[in-house]
Amino acid sequence: MTNYRDLDIYKISFNLFLRTHPFSLKLPKYELYELGSQLRRSSDSVITNIVEGYGRRSYKNDFIKFLVYSEASSLETINHLEKILALYAELCKEAEELVKEYNLLGGKIHSFTEYVRSSWRS
């Protein structure tokens, strides 16, 4: 691994962000700056925390802390998508697929965090 771009969790989260951002723009105009903005920010936070944590990888505990933040942001993103599922039936198919993929990503982030916790050399 030469940089954060080599991490599967980064690649997956970046791809999901690129799908989540335009999805959020399908919300009604009055939601674009409320729920839409929250969804975009939490989705971006998943990636950003992976990158920032990797930048602090020399400090194992900092790396772990930012990976935990990333997993939490993934859960937050799922929560926003669940609100969309409850409110906007016309967006359900795409939102359900994103929820499924963020759930898988959260598991991968958690597994990677446990790997760092047990095996990472700072």
Automatic annotation (TrEMBL):
SUPFAM superfamilies: IVS-encoded protein-like. InterPro entries: 23S_rRNA-intervening_sequence, 23S_rRNA_IVS_sf. Pfam families: 23S_rRNA_IVP. PANTHER family: FOUR HELIX BUNDLE PROTEIN. This is Four helix bundle protein. It comes from Algoriphagus winogradskyi.
